[in-house]
Amino acid sequence: MEKTIISEGRTTNEAIEKGLKQLRVSKDRVEIKVLENEEKRSFFSILAPRVVKVEMKLKEDKKEKKEKKEIKPKKVIELTKEEKQIAKENIKKFMDEILVQLPENTVYNISESELGINVEITNSNLGFLIGYRGETLYAMQNILSAIAGKSIEKKVRVILDIEGYKEKREKTLEELAEKVAKTVIRTRKPIKLEPMQAYERKIIHSKLQQNDKVETESIGEEPNRRIIIKLKK
């Protein structure tokens, strides 16, 4: 949809009404600027047809602002070399303690990244640690973040993955986004997805952000917040 239009009429009100019909929105959704007023007519133009021009610009939707905020990258908290070392030692101590309770041959790896500390746990029998739609994995990730930050004033971000789950899930969600978008375009009806983690909603938003036919919107409250995919107005 065009964000800015020029509408004409014999009066200001008529020009505005025509513009609102063209944009298919209410008056409170637009910014209006009169370009040519019916009062500003010279003697020589008195016989010319009366035309009023107004510029009408769509206001940014609050929901759009909210979605932009949601997919905005998180601010990276820089840790010193010493702080990273303390965080890794805290994680290692915790992982060594729970490793004896996990299936045989389970191994873990701790590494650093720009976003924080990465922890990867590997074993083909760790489905119980992932949980339904990764719920257990994300809960454990929060626990690791709290443990990593012990004796550190800054917040430590830990990114946990188990048996490559997140990469597989990301691919699944991108495929789902494309499939649902095609259905919405074909049926012209919005589709509501199941509740997802914020990280998973971000994948859907990002995948369809450049789609010129559909748009995404998050609704509801955590932990039942979900995405609606619908046609662009």
Question: How is this structure best described in words?
Answer:
- With 233 residues, the protein is of the alpha+beta class.
- The protein folds into three domains: 4-59, no CATH class; 81-163, GMP Synthetase, Chain A, domain 3 (2-Layer Sandwich), CATH 3.30.300; 167-231, R3H-like domain (Ribosomal Protein S8, Chain: A, domain 1, 2-Layer Sandwich), CATH 3.30.1370.
- Helix content is 39%, strand content 23%.
- It contains seven helices and nine strands.
- The protein has helices at residues 12-23, 62-70, 81-99, 127-130, 135-148, 165-187, 198-208; strands spanning 4-9, 30-36, 52-58, 107-113, 116-122, 158-162, 191-192, 214-219, 226-231.
- A three-stranded antiparallel sheet has the order 1-3-2, with helices on one face. Strands 4-5-6 form a three-stranded mixed sheet. It has a three-stranded antiparallel sheet with strand order 7-9-8.
- A hairpin with a 2-residue loop joins strand 4 and strand 5.
- Helix 6 (165-187) packs across helix 7 (198-208).
- The radius of gyration is 27 Å and the shape is elongated.
- It starts with a strand and ends with a strand.
- Mean pLDDT is 85; it is low at 39-48.
CATH superfamily label of the largest domain? K homology (KH) domain
CATH class value of the largest domain? Alpha Beta
Number of domains: 3
- Rounded to an integer in angstroms, the radius of gyration calculated over CA atoms is 27 Å
What is the fold named in CATH at topology level of the largest domain? GMP Synthetase, Chain A, domain 3
Task: Indicate the low-confidence ranges by residue numbers.
Answer: 39-48
Major beta sheet, specifics?
Answer: 3 strands, antiparallel
